[in-house]
Amino acid sequence: MSDTTVYVAKKIITMNPRQPEATHLAVRDGRILAVGDLAWMQAWGEYQLDTRFADQVLMPGLVEGHCHLKEGGMWVFPYVGWFDRTGPDGRLWQGLQSMDAVVDAMKATADAWDAAGKPADEPLVVWGFDPIYFGQERMSVLHLDRASRTRPLVVCHSNGHLMNVNSRMMAMAGITRDTDIQGVVKFADGEPTGELQEPAAMFPVARRLGPSGSGLLAPMDDDGMRGFGAIACMRGVTTATDLVNQLADHDMQVLLGACERDDYNVRVVPAFKAFHGTWGAKDGVARIAQLSEQHGGKDKLRFGVVKMMLDGSIQGFSARLRWPGYFNGAPNGIWVTSPAQFEADFEAYHRAGLTIHVHTNGDEASLVAIDAIERVLARAPRTDHRHTLQHGQMIDAALFQRMAALGLCANLFANHVYYWGDQHAQMTMGPDRAARMDACASALAHGVPLAIHSDAPVTPLGPLFTAWCAVNRRTASGQVLGASECISVPQALHAITLGAAWTLKLDSEIGSLECGKRADLCIMEDDPLAIDPMALKDVRVWGTMLSGRVFEATSMRYSVG
C-alpha cells in the first residue's frame, strides 16, 4: 500500500498566489507533497486516490488568531446572551432579549437546583450577558436578588471583562461599601451595585468560586477541550490561539492530555498570560523557556506567544479612549496594566525573543502601546518580531502608518461590526468614529499584516462569519457601517489563513496549500469565491483535515457537562 494519498476536489483554493487553484492534492506523512492536477501527482510515483471530496471545495485549514479554549467549556454554564448560539453538541440556545427574561431564566434554574437539593452555597454561574442591548438599564443586585437571595449568583458578561453578582455572592466575596478596588461599581449612596469591571474587581468573586470557576476565569478541563474541538471542526478551524493561558501545571496537564491524542483535531497555540498573574516578567520568560524545552516540537501544541493587556472593553465602557471619549459621556475606562508596567514587562518578553500580542481596544490604549513599543525597539532592535495589536478597534490611519514602520501586525475584531456596531454608533463612539472601527481596509492600505478574529466565546467561533463581517460590514440591524473599510473576499480569506498564521509565526507551516506545509484543510460544500459575498457566512463546512487526518463535523459533536 502506498504511503501517498491523492485527494481530488471540485476545486482547491490554495491561498498561494503563484498557484491559486488546483484539482488534486497529494499528502504524505501528514504534509502536502504536491498540489496541481492528476498528472503532477502521478509524477511522484505510487499513490492511493481518495475521491470522497470530489464534489467539495478545499482550502487551507482556517486559523483563529484570537479565541479562547473556553468556547468549548462554557456550555457547562447556562447561556443567557442576546443572540441565538449553537453549542458543541449542535444544540441551538435561544437568545434572551429582555432583562426580565434573563432574570426569569436564572430564577428557574436556581429554583430547580433548590428542588434537586443542591447545596445552597453552590454558586449558579451563567454567561453571555451584555447590558448594552438593554439601553440605559444596567443589571444590579436589585435584578439578581429577584432570582435568588439565598444562592450565590454570577453573571459573566459576553466580553469577559465584566460580571454581575447578587447580594449573597457579594457577601461571600467580602465586597461591601468599604471595598476600595477600581472596577467595583457603586450606587450613589456608596453601596456596591454588584457590577464588577475588569480582573482586579472580579478576583474576590473568582477566588470564592473554587473549581466551578467563572466564565473565562474557569479552569480548563478535558471536556472543554473536546467541546472546543467539536466547534472548531464545525467551523473549519484547524489552528487556534488560546490567547490567555496561565500555563500553570493544571493547564499544561489538560493541554497535553488533549493535544497528544491522535484523534484531537486542533493545533493549539496557548498565549502566556503576562498580566495580573502569579508570574512576574522574569519568571514568565523562564516558564515559557521551560515548557518550550520540555514540550517543543509537538505538532498540536506550540509555544512562544505572550498575551499582554492594556485596557478593557468598549461596549463595557472599560476601554481607554482618546478625546472626545465616550459618545454617551461615560467616564474613560480602566488601565488593566499601567502604561509604565506595560513597557517594562513588554521589554522583558521582547528581549527574550518572544512574540507579544497586546490587547488594545480603545485608541488611547493603542497609542500608548505603539509609543511604548517604539521606545523598546529603539533600545532593543529586533527584526521580524511580529508583535501584534489585538482588537485595535479604533486604530486610525496615522496609527496604522506608525505600526507599519515598526513592523507591527494587527488582528482586528471584525465581528464587532455585526454584534455591537449599532450600539457603537448610538452609544459608545458615535456614528463617525463607529464607521471606521475595525478598519481592515486601512490596515491593508498602510501595509500592516492583517488577521481578523472572533475572540470566542465573546462571539461565536467561526472565521468564515468573521470574514463576512470584514467584507460586508453589516450591523445586526442590517446597516452598512463604514463602507470604505470593506475588504474583498480574497483579502478576508487571506486574513483567516495566511494572515493569522503570519502573526503566530506559523506561516511556513500552515495558511496555504503548498509542498512541504502541513496537510491542514477546511472542507466545504460551497465555494466562497463563487458565491454572493453576502452569503459568505452561510458557507457549509463538511469538516477538516489536520496534518493529514480527516475529521467530519457531524461525528465530532460533543455534549459538554
Topology (SSEs and partners):
Elements lengths: L3 E10 L7 E8 L2 E6 L1 H5 L5 E3 L6 E4 L1 E6 L2 H4 L11 E2 L5 E2 L5 H17 L8 E6 L11 H7 L5 E5 L4 E4 L1 H7 L10 E3 L5 E6 H12 L12 H13 L2 E9 L3 H11 L7 E7 L7 H15 L9 E5 L29 H13 L3 E6 L2 H17 L8 E4 L5 H10 L2 E4 L3 H13 L2 H4 L5 H6 L4 E3 L10 H10 L16 H15 L17 E4 L16 E6 L2 E4 H4 L5
Parallel strand pairs: 1-4, 1-5, 6-14, 9-10, 14-15, 15-16, 16-17, 17-18, 18-19, 19-20
Antiparallel strand pairs: 1-2, 2-3, 5-21, 7-8, 10-11, 11-13, 12-13, 21-22, 22-23
- Which architecture of one domain does the CATH hierarchy give at level 2? Roll
Q: Beta-sheet strand percentage?
A: 15-25%
Give the CATH level 1 class of one domain: Alpha Beta
Q: What's the tally of helices?
A: 18
End-to-end gap: 42 Å
Class by alpha and beta content = alpha/beta
- Proportion in helices: 25-40%
Instruction: Report the C-alpha radius of gyration, rounded.
Output: 23 Å
What does the largest sheet look like? 8 strands, mixed
Unreliable stretches covering 5 or more consecutive residues: none
The overall pLDDT, averaged over residues, is: 95
**CATH fold node name of one domain:** Diaminopimelate Epimerase, Chain A, domain 1
Write down the overall geometry: globular
What's the β-strand tally? 23
